[in-house]
Amino acid sequence: MPTFRYRAYDAQGHLANGTVEAQSQEHATDTLFAQGLTTFQLRTFGADSNPWWQRELFAGNRSSRVEVAALTRELATLIAAEIPLADALRILSDQAGSSRVRALATGLLADVLNGAALSEAMQKQPVVFSSDYVSIVRAGEIGGTLGQVFEELADLLERRLELRARVQSALVYPVILIGVSLVTLGIILGVLVPGIASAFAESGRALPAAAQFLVAVQTRWPELLALVLGVVTVGVVTIMVALRRPHVALMMDRTKLKAPLLGNVVLQQETARFSRTLGTLLRAGVPLLQAAGAASGVIGNRHVAAGTERAIGLVREGRSLYRALESEAAFPTLALRMISIGEEAGRLDQMLLRVAAIFERQTQHSIDRFMTILTPLLTVAMAIVVGSLVMTIMSAMLGINELAIQ
């Protein structure tokens, strides 16, 4: 029987964390409810049920996130037009532009017509709809602001898709460069090196030392490839096993924040992610504690997430959000100051969305700067490697010419 890790509120509004064994997420939610706990986050223990757009920058299934964003936007548009939920799902199941979106809408419609709430129907598809997404939709149902929740969610998902699309576009040139370099290396090792080796063998003269090394690589490439793959596999498995230990994963995420270039990008991304989600939920009418709990769930860095959860506990005890985050979370000073101003002015949701916009731009600028540095570094590195091989081949070819003259 699978085990689920949950985060829930008890009857007094206190946050509870733990694990529960159940046959499915539905059964787990029912079991916790019977114990007086209202679940707002439920994940399979030992696995991350959140999709890529809530976690690391390059993880996840692109088609799934695009379909979720498209479905969210379509539902926001139809509900804003005051079309009943069942009719909206029926329209999407018949007329949505994507066949995958139509299939999603059809499945949701069947459950809704059978009496389930939309959040319950989405909870049955944890691969597509994350626990945090479902919790936000459930909050919209309870507060009667489902249309606004979908509008804000659609904006949120589309911004994240846009950011990742920019990153992927920036990676096109380095990937092409590496691919062309590998093809060039393959031609040199597979075509030129054997020809030069045979010419020297026929003359009875020894190859130059550098050419001998290339011949050794060319003749033993299966063993070398197996060795490299073995080392990489062992390394990846070791890291995966280590990351399953909470203290190791926490230490790794803490180390990420201290990395010279990566740390700044990670912190900016997590700040924007938390601020955008929290501001979106507050604007949709979700209470602060529930919204902050859901927003902390979208933070991918465990060190930042742990500090944010401690801060939410202080907010529950009566401390202001700014003071709680200042004492426990690792967010930048600018973000904290703006949150403080938003609380004092009674416009916390607006200020959080401004914080998100600022740090989303900073994240993009940091990534652009990183790619600006990475591209010439890769170009120089590939030029050095390929140039060294070409010079070695040219030197050997000159040796062949000397043989021909003699």
In words, what does this structure look like?
With 406 residues, this protein is mainly alpha-helical. It folds into 2 domains: 1-47, Ubiquitin-like (UB roll) (Roll); 156-406, Type II secretion system (T2SS), domain F (Receptor-associated Protein). The chain has 16 helices and 3 strands. It has a 3-stranded antiparallel β-sheet, with helices on both faces. Helix 2 (62-80) crosses helix 3, helix 10 crosses helix 11 (262-283) and helix 15 runs antiparallel to helix 16 (348-405). Mean pLDDT is 78; it is low at 46-63.
Brief characterization of the structure:
With about 400 residues, the chain is mainly alpha-helical. Helix 11 packs antiparallel against helix 12. The protein has helices spanning about 25-35, 60-80, 85-95, 100-115, 120-125, 130-145, 145-205, 210-220, 220-245, 245-260, 260-285, 290-295, 300-315, 320-330, 335-345, 350-405, and strands spanning about 5-10, 15-20, 40-45.
